[in-house]
Amino acid sequence: MAELGDWTCEYNGLLIGAPDSATSLVSVDGLLSLPDVRSADLALVQRHGLYPGDDYMGGRAVTLTLEVYGRTREEFTTALNGVYAAFGVADKEKPLRFRFPGVAGDRTAFVNARPRKRAGPLDLNFAYRVCNIVVELFATDPYLYGDALETKRLSSPWEGAEPRLWFKQVGSVPALPVIKLTGSRDCVLRDEVTGNYFGMANVAGDITIDAERRTLTATGGGPSLTDKITPGSEWPEFAFGDHRLTLASAAVGGPTTAEITWRNRWA
Fold first, then answer.
1. What share of the chain is helix, strand, coil (3-state, %, to 5)?
2. For residue 211, which of 185, 243, 234 has the smallest C-alpha distance?
3. pTM over the 0.70 mark
Protein backbone atom coordinates (compact mmCIF):
# COMPACT_ATOMS: atom_id res chain seq x y z
CA MET A 1 0.00 0.00 0.00
CA ALA A 2 1.03 3.61 -0.51
CA GLU A 3 3.26 5.24 2.10
CA LEU A 4 1.42 7.79 4.21
CA GLY A 5 2.57 11.36 4.74
CA ASP A 6 3.73 12.56 8.16
CA TRP A 7 0.97 13.24 10.70
CA THR A 8 -1.69 11.42 8.73
CA CYS A 9 -3.69 8.26 9.32
CA GLU A 10 -6.16 6.17 7.35
CA TYR A 11 -9.06 3.96 8.35
CA ASN A 12 -11.67 2.20 6.22
CA GLY A 13 -10.95 4.40 3.20
CA LEU A 14 -10.89 7.72 5.09
CA LEU A 15 -7.61 9.66 4.96
CA ILE A 16 -7.22 11.99 7.95
CA GLY A 17 -4.81 14.90 8.23
CA ALA A 18 -3.89 15.41 4.58
CA PRO A 19 -3.17 19.02 3.51
CA ASP A 20 -6.36 20.98 2.75
CA SER A 21 -8.48 18.05 3.97
CA ALA A 22 -11.79 18.81 5.66
CA THR A 23 -10.96 16.20 8.32
CA SER A 24 -7.88 16.86 10.44
CA LEU A 25 -6.30 15.12 13.41
CA VAL A 26 -6.36 16.87 16.81
CA SER A 27 -4.88 14.10 18.99
CA VAL A 28 -4.28 10.35 19.22
CA ASP A 29 -4.16 8.37 22.45
CA GLY A 30 -3.26 4.72 22.86
CA LEU A 31 -0.46 4.14 20.35
CA LEU A 32 2.35 4.96 22.79
CA SER A 33 0.66 3.29 25.75
CA LEU A 34 1.38 -0.25 26.91
CA PRO A 35 -1.94 -2.16 26.87
CA ASP A 36 -3.35 -3.49 30.13
CA VAL A 37 -1.42 -6.52 31.35
CA ARG A 38 -2.94 -9.77 32.64
CA SER A 39 -0.71 -11.04 35.40
CA ALA A 40 -0.37 -14.65 36.54
CA ASP A 41 1.26 -13.73 39.86
CA LEU A 42 0.28 -15.97 42.79
CA ALA A 43 0.22 -15.23 46.49
CA LEU A 44 2.93 -16.93 48.57
CA VAL A 45 1.65 -18.85 51.56
CA GLN A 46 2.90 -17.46 54.89
CA ARG A 47 5.53 -15.36 53.14
CA HIS A 48 5.83 -11.77 52.02
CA GLY A 49 5.26 -10.96 48.36
CA LEU A 50 4.04 -12.94 45.39
CA TYR A 51 5.23 -15.76 43.15
CA PRO A 52 5.99 -14.03 39.81
CA GLY A 53 4.01 -15.54 36.96
CA ASP A 54 3.90 -14.71 33.25
CA ASP A 55 2.44 -11.41 32.03
CA TYR A 56 0.27 -11.13 28.92
CA MET A 57 -1.06 -8.03 27.20
CA GLY A 58 -4.77 -7.46 26.78
CA GLY A 59 -6.32 -5.49 23.91
CA ARG A 60 -5.38 -1.96 22.86
CA ALA A 61 -7.76 1.02 22.91
CA VAL A 62 -6.92 3.85 20.49
CA THR A 63 -8.77 7.17 20.74
CA LEU A 64 -8.79 9.61 17.81
CA THR A 65 -9.97 13.19 18.20
CA LEU A 66 -10.89 14.61 14.80
CA GLU A 67 -11.78 18.12 13.72
CA VAL A 68 -14.19 18.33 10.81
CA TYR A 69 -14.38 21.70 9.05
CA GLY A 70 -16.22 22.86 5.96
CA ARG A 71 -15.89 26.10 4.04
CA THR A 72 -19.39 25.52 2.75
CA ARG A 73 -22.41 23.68 4.10
CA GLU A 74 -22.03 21.04 1.41
CA GLU A 75 -18.35 20.45 2.17
CA PHE A 76 -19.06 20.19 5.90
CA THR A 77 -21.91 17.70 5.38
CA THR A 78 -19.85 15.59 2.99
CA ALA A 79 -16.92 15.44 5.44
CA LEU A 80 -19.20 14.42 8.33
CA ASN A 81 -20.80 11.70 6.22
CA GLY A 82 -17.30 10.38 5.43
CA VAL A 83 -16.53 10.10 9.16
CA TYR A 84 -19.87 8.34 9.81
CA ALA A 85 -19.19 5.84 7.02
CA ALA A 86 -15.63 5.09 8.10
CA PHE A 87 -16.34 4.75 11.82
CA GLY A 88 -19.66 2.92 11.88
CA VAL A 89 -20.43 -0.39 13.60
CA ALA A 90 -18.06 -2.97 12.13
CA ASP A 91 -18.28 -6.76 12.03
CA LYS A 92 -14.51 -7.22 11.75
CA GLU A 93 -11.31 -5.40 12.56
CA LYS A 94 -9.68 -3.25 9.91
CA PRO A 95 -6.21 -1.66 9.80
CA LEU A 96 -5.76 1.80 11.24
CA ARG A 97 -2.72 2.89 9.22
CA PHE A 98 -0.67 5.83 10.48
CA ARG A 99 2.62 7.65 10.14
CA PHE A 100 3.65 9.82 13.08
CA PRO A 101 7.30 10.93 13.34
CA GLY A 102 9.07 8.93 16.07
CA VAL A 103 6.30 6.33 16.41
CA ALA A 104 6.77 2.74 15.15
CA GLY A 105 10.30 3.29 13.91
CA ASP A 106 9.34 6.53 12.14
CA ARG A 107 7.56 4.67 9.35
CA THR A 108 4.06 3.73 8.24
CA ALA A 109 2.51 1.16 10.56
CA PHE A 110 -0.93 -0.22 11.43
CA VAL A 111 -3.02 -1.74 14.19
CA ASN A 112 -6.11 -3.84 13.44
CA ALA A 113 -9.12 -2.41 15.27
CA ARG A 114 -12.85 -1.74 15.10
CA PRO A 115 -14.93 1.25 16.31
CA ARG A 116 -16.47 0.96 19.78
CA LYS A 117 -17.53 4.58 20.34
CA ARG A 118 -18.09 7.78 18.35
CA ALA A 119 -19.16 11.06 19.94
CA GLY A 120 -19.47 14.69 18.87
CA PRO A 121 -21.43 17.69 20.23
CA LEU A 122 -24.04 19.77 18.46
CA ASP A 123 -22.99 23.20 19.74
CA LEU A 124 -22.26 26.74 18.57
CA ASN A 125 -19.12 25.63 16.76
CA PHE A 126 -21.20 23.10 14.82
CA ALA A 127 -23.41 25.95 13.61
CA TYR A 128 -20.28 27.51 12.12
CA ARG A 129 -19.34 24.25 10.36
CA VAL A 130 -16.71 23.07 12.85
CA CYS A 131 -17.07 19.88 14.90
CA ASN A 132 -14.74 17.81 17.07
CA ILE A 133 -15.53 14.10 16.92
CA VAL A 134 -13.99 11.56 19.29
CA VAL A 135 -13.67 8.00 17.98
CA GLU A 136 -12.60 5.08 20.16
CA LEU A 137 -11.21 2.00 18.41
CA PHE A 138 -10.41 -1.29 20.09
CA ALA A 139 -7.83 -3.84 18.90
CA THR A 140 -7.95 -7.40 20.22
CA ASP A 141 -4.37 -7.83 18.94
CA PRO A 142 -2.37 -5.17 20.82
CA TYR A 143 0.67 -5.12 18.53
CA LEU A 144 1.51 -2.31 16.12
CA TYR A 145 2.80 -3.74 12.85
CA GLY A 146 5.09 -2.29 10.20
CA ASP A 147 3.15 -1.66 7.00
CA ALA A 148 5.95 -3.05 4.82
CA LEU A 149 7.90 -6.27 5.26
CA GLU A 150 11.61 -6.08 6.02
CA THR A 151 13.72 -8.15 3.61
CA LYS A 152 17.48 -8.76 3.85
CA ARG A 153 19.76 -10.95 1.73
CA LEU A 154 22.94 -12.81 2.63
CA SER A 155 25.31 -15.19 0.77
CA SER A 156 27.75 -17.76 2.05
CA PRO A 157 31.48 -17.18 1.44
CA TRP A 158 32.54 -17.97 -2.12
CA GLU A 159 35.76 -17.49 -4.07
CA GLY A 160 37.43 -15.51 -1.30
CA ALA A 161 34.41 -13.36 -0.39
CA GLU A 162 33.54 -13.24 3.33
CA PRO A 163 30.08 -11.64 3.33
CA ARG A 164 28.35 -10.40 6.48
CA LEU A 165 24.91 -8.90 6.85
CA TRP A 166 24.71 -5.88 9.15
CA PHE A 167 21.33 -4.42 10.08
CA LYS A 168 19.41 -2.75 12.92
CA GLN A 169 16.12 -4.30 14.02
CA VAL A 170 13.83 -1.34 14.81
CA GLY A 171 10.83 -3.18 16.27
CA SER A 172 10.49 -3.24 20.06
CA VAL A 173 9.25 -6.86 19.88
CA PRO A 174 11.81 -9.49 18.76
CA ALA A 175 11.40 -10.36 15.07
CA LEU A 176 10.77 -13.99 14.13
CA PRO A 177 11.85 -14.24 10.48
CA VAL A 178 11.10 -16.53 7.58
CA ILE A 179 14.42 -17.51 5.96
CA LYS A 180 14.53 -19.06 2.48
CA LEU A 181 17.82 -20.76 1.65
CA THR A 182 18.69 -21.42 -1.99
CA GLY A 183 21.36 -23.96 -2.96
CA SER A 184 22.01 -24.92 0.65
CA ARG A 185 23.94 -27.81 2.11
CA ASP A 186 24.43 -28.34 5.84
CA CYS A 187 24.13 -24.61 6.55
CA VAL A 188 24.80 -22.66 9.74
CA LEU A 189 23.32 -19.19 10.21
CA ARG A 190 25.07 -17.31 13.02
CA ASP A 191 24.47 -13.95 14.70
CA GLU A 192 27.90 -12.67 15.69
CA VAL A 193 26.39 -10.07 18.03
CA THR A 194 24.38 -12.48 20.18
CA GLY A 195 26.39 -15.64 19.52
CA ASN A 196 23.24 -17.60 18.69
CA TYR A 197 23.25 -19.94 15.70
CA PHE A 198 20.91 -22.21 13.74
CA GLY A 199 22.47 -25.22 12.01
CA MET A 200 21.34 -28.17 9.89
CA ALA A 201 23.03 -31.51 9.14
CA ASN A 202 22.49 -33.95 6.26
CA VAL A 203 20.09 -31.64 4.45
CA ALA A 204 20.53 -29.92 1.08
CA GLY A 205 18.55 -27.97 -1.49
CA ASP A 206 16.13 -25.08 -1.15
CA ILE A 207 15.04 -24.87 2.49
CA THR A 208 12.62 -22.63 4.41
CA ILE A 209 13.11 -21.81 8.09
CA ASP A 210 9.98 -20.36 9.73
CA ALA A 211 11.04 -19.11 13.15
CA GLU A 212 7.53 -18.11 14.26
CA ARG A 213 5.96 -21.48 13.43
CA ARG A 214 9.11 -23.40 14.46
CA THR A 215 9.19 -25.32 11.18
CA LEU A 216 12.00 -26.43 8.87
CA THR A 217 10.85 -27.72 5.48
CA ALA A 218 11.87 -27.91 1.85
CA THR A 219 10.77 -24.75 0.05
CA GLY A 220 7.50 -25.51 -1.68
CA GLY A 221 6.39 -28.09 0.88
CA GLY A 222 7.19 -31.56 2.04
CA PRO A 223 7.75 -33.36 5.34
CA SER A 224 9.25 -31.67 8.37
CA LEU A 225 13.05 -31.55 8.55
CA THR A 226 13.26 -30.48 12.20
CA ASP A 227 15.13 -33.68 13.03
CA LYS A 228 18.00 -32.29 10.92
CA ILE A 229 18.56 -29.32 13.25
CA THR A 230 21.95 -29.58 14.96
CA PRO A 231 22.24 -29.62 18.78
CA GLY A 232 22.63 -26.21 20.41
CA SER A 233 20.74 -24.44 17.65
CA GLU A 234 18.26 -21.68 18.50
CA TRP A 235 15.47 -20.55 16.21
CA PRO A 236 16.47 -17.21 14.61
CA GLU A 237 15.20 -14.24 16.61
CA PHE A 238 16.23 -10.61 16.19
CA ALA A 239 15.76 -8.39 19.23
CA PHE A 240 15.77 -4.60 19.01
CA GLY A 241 19.20 -3.28 18.06
CA ASP A 242 22.19 -4.20 15.90
CA HIS A 243 22.79 -7.63 14.35
CA ARG A 244 25.58 -9.13 12.24
CA LEU A 245 24.81 -12.38 10.44
CA THR A 246 27.04 -14.89 8.67
CA LEU A 247 26.02 -17.93 6.63
CA ALA A 248 28.26 -21.00 6.33
CA SER A 249 27.49 -23.69 3.76
CA ALA A 250 29.04 -26.94 2.56
CA ALA A 251 27.70 -26.39 -0.97
CA VAL A 252 30.40 -26.80 -3.65
CA GLY A 253 28.61 -25.66 -6.81
CA GLY A 254 28.19 -22.04 -5.80
CA PRO A 255 27.28 -19.82 -2.86
CA THR A 256 24.20 -20.48 -0.76
CA THR A 257 21.88 -17.47 -0.58
CA ALA A 258 19.43 -16.57 2.17
CA GLU A 259 16.40 -14.28 1.86
CA ILE A 260 15.39 -13.15 5.37
CA THR A 261 11.93 -11.60 5.80
CA TRP A 262 9.97 -10.36 8.81
CA ARG A 263 7.40 -7.75 9.83
CA ASN A 264 8.38 -5.27 12.53
CA ARG A 265 6.22 -5.17 15.66
CA TRP A 266 5.86 -2.76 18.55
CA ALA A 267 4.03 -3.11 21.87
1. 10, 45, 45
2. 234
3. yes
Sign of dihedral through CA atoms 152, 158, 159, 163?
Answer: positive
The DSSP 8-state label assigned to residue 126 in this structure reads H
- Cβ–Cβ under 8 Å, residues 112 and 106: no
b or e along 171-197 (b: 16 or more beta carbons within 10 Å of the residue's beta carbon)? beeebbbbbbbbbbbbbbbbbeeeebb
160-199, pLDDT tens digit by residue?
A: 888 999 999 999 999 999 999 999 999 999 999 999 999 9
**Rama region for 225: left / alpha / beta (φ>0; ψ in -120 to 50; rest):** alpha
Q: Is 232 helix (H, G, I), strand (E, B) or coil?
A: coil
Question: CB–CB of 243/191 below 8 Å?
Answer: yes
Among left, alpha and beta (phi > 0; psi -120 to 50; other), residue 129 is left
Task: List all residues 6 or more positions away from 58 whose beta carbon is below 8 Å from its beta carbon.
Answer: 35, 36, 37, 38, 142
Helices (H), the chain: 73-86, 124-127
Give the largest CA-CA distance in the chain: 78
Cβ neighbourhood burial of 102 (10 Å; 0-12, 13-18, 19+): exposed
- Cα 109 from Cα 143, distance rounded (Å): 10
